UniProtKB/TrEMBL annotation:
The lineage of its organism: Bacteria, Pseudomonadati, Pseudomonadota, Betaproteobacteria, Burkholderiales. It holds the Pfam family EamA. The chain crosses the membrane at residues 37-58, 70-90, 96-115, 122-139, 155-176, 197-217, 223-244, 256-275, 281-302. It is found in: Membrane. The keyword Magnesium does not apply. GO terms for cellular component: membrane. This is Permease. InterPro entries: EamA_dom, EmrE-like.
Amino acid sequence: MTHRKAVVLMVLVTLLWSTAGVVTRHLEAARGFELTFWRSAFNALALLIGLGWLRGPALLAQLRQAPRMVWASGLCWAVMFTAFMLALSLTTVANVLVTMALSPLLTALLARVFLHHRLPARTWLAILVASLGIAWMFGHEMGQGGDGPQATAPLAWLGIVVALGVPMASAINWSLMQHAGRQVAGDAAAASTASDMPLAVLIGALISALCMLPLAWPLQASWHDVGLLASLGAFQLALPCLLVVHLTRVLSGPEVALLAQLEVIFGVLWAWLWAGEQPSSAALLGGGLVLAALVGNELLAWREQAGHAAASRR
């Protein structure tokens, strides 16, 4: 797969991911833990069918024998699946998606701390600006107390805290998948781990569903809700997550995390157009700071790379 095709597919992934917020706003009864359970359960079912068709009867044995890195990635997926839906039940779509926009910067920080990659001054500046954006949004929600005139959901500030679990887990996950995707020629163990990474998505869905079921019981979702959540599990989660696992073999971790931020724009737009959920001024300002930090960091990076390339041709 060429880099250009990988970027196009990653945009498709973000389009599919971005539908979660607007769909959940059209549910009748499912909320919180039950909402998370049904989506993760249908995600797991879709993955069992898809991976079972691709891998056959060996699927269960492959799950039992999966390497530790696959299980670690599975735990990251479980946190992402769970924290995202719980956060949506506590605060607005805009607040959740803006908080998730911290993923590229957290990915860069992980590369600095654990992989000892040096971070340029522009990245540290981007981290500072993005942090200010999240702090502004969080402070606004705390000031409203979750039930002020500008609040659109109870305990909105708690939703932001829960949503922070998504970029933290995704930063770890992108790094793990990128590491696994770097297959060394002749290294059978590395090749085996890379081919097993799609199993991590299934492991994450199963962990999320099993953890949420006791908390969601007794189930009260209507058939209308179950149908919508089934579509989310299969098409908003299972399909794009499998795609992104394969794309990490072509795109770098920070690159995946950056392109994933298109979900912020798409998700807020869908919620505004089809759910009537207008983002607050704090979310717009905070989100603007986060996205400005991300875009500015990448533009400066591309400018530096173009300068180095021009200098090398002289």
